[in-house]
Amino acid sequence: MQISSLEALKTIIKPTHKSYVEVGVSRAKNLVAVANTFDNLDILYGIDPYKPYIDRMVGLSEVGEKLIITIKNEALININNCKNKHKIKLIIDTSENIVNQFEDNSLDVVFIDTVVDEEEYKNQIVTWFKKVKRKGVLCGHDWHIKKVKDITLELLKNLGEDHRHRGYTNKWQESNGIIWYITKL
Q1: Residue 100 has pLDDT above 60, yes or no
Q2: 172 with 1: CB under 8 angstroms?
Q3: pLDDT surpassing 80 at residue 47
Q4: Could you tell me which of 13, 41, 54, 75 has the fewest CB atoms within 10 Å of its CB?
């Protein structure tokens, strides 16, 4: 059975969670769905640079300037039409430039949905994991991509003993990916 990212996140986001960060917003469909579903979330940050790129993890797919402008405009419209738009803060910048604006151990949920190249992806996991608070969750998309799965498993094993691993099954699938997650102890 295939379900959406939102359905998977319903099993991950707890009523006690108050903050959510989505790294890689694209059209903001997932961000808006989360904002509309989880009334317990006080603030949702969406981070995306909206710059052209080549996705090297999926097979050199190119997203050019014209498409990026369209995607960004769709995101702005989707957020504007969100019933909880007052809770959403869209940050148009790279994750690398933004991550240190958040204190370590301060965020409840971080959802990584940006996979461009291996080094960037590794840095995303390591740097955002530090920002997740105790009993918070680091999760991500694209588990179906072998490179993503291999890198994620390797990094999770090396992050230390202050967390437990979860989500290493195909339990949460959707048409274009699988969600993985870990809970920080």
Answers
A1: yes
A2: no
A3: yes
A4: 54
- Domains of the chain in sequence order: 1-102 (3.40.50.150), 122-133+144-162 (no CATH)
C-alpha separations of 98 from 25, 31, 40 in Å? 14, 18, 24
Find the largest Cα–Cα distance for the chain: 45
Please give the helix or strand (H or E) that residue 55 lies within, else none: strand 53-55
Specify which residues 7 forms β-bridges with.
Answer: none
- Structure letter (DSSP) for residue 60: S
Helices (H), the chain: 5-10, 29-37, 65-80, 95-98, 118-131, 146-158
Amino acid at 145: I
Token digits for 157? 């094993």
Q: Residue length, the chain? A: 185
Q: How far apart are CA 40 and CA 26, in angstroms?
A: 24
* CA–CA dist 42, 40 (Å, integer): 6
Rounded CA-CA distance 30/22 in Å is 9
| Distance, CA of 49 to chain centre | 14
